[in-house]
Predict the structure of BAH domain-containing protein.
Amino acid sequence: MAKAKAPRRTLDSYTVKPINKTIKAGDCVLMRPADQSKPSYVAKIERIEADARGGNVKVHVRWYYRPEESIGGRRQFHGSKEVFLSDHYDVQSADTIEGKCTVHSFKSYTKLDAVGNDDFFCRFEYNSSTGAFNPDRVAVYCKCEMPYNPDDLMVQCEGCSD
């Protein structure tokens, strides 16, 4: 006879011991990659679960992808702190959380006085199986029709010299 799966319960919040930060559903976090030479992964917490005794804490996450992780890769207009909210969901150990971060809307990101290490922005949703973006186009800010990269101060367009 198969062993019954231990019941799990949903937690409202959980304090990640190594970083001494409390997380809850809706928070964005940095997660440790298996390959330490890669940057931390960015994820949005959907749900937190623990076993009946409150141990073995798992987080259900929705991944953000960096441009270089998407089909088509990084493009000239992608900002260095840009991420795409994907349709890729996963369950991870809460022990892999390295810290909390903030994923801003594009508009609020461009209005920040100072961008910290834990600030990112998202202007697209990304379908990980098809490589499609939603929206499938972005506003352009120049006659040459290049989208705005918030990392570049645009005084004169390098492409069209306007």
Remarks:
- The two ends are 74 Å apart (CA to CA).
- The chain has one domain: 9-147.
- The longest strand covers residues 41-51.
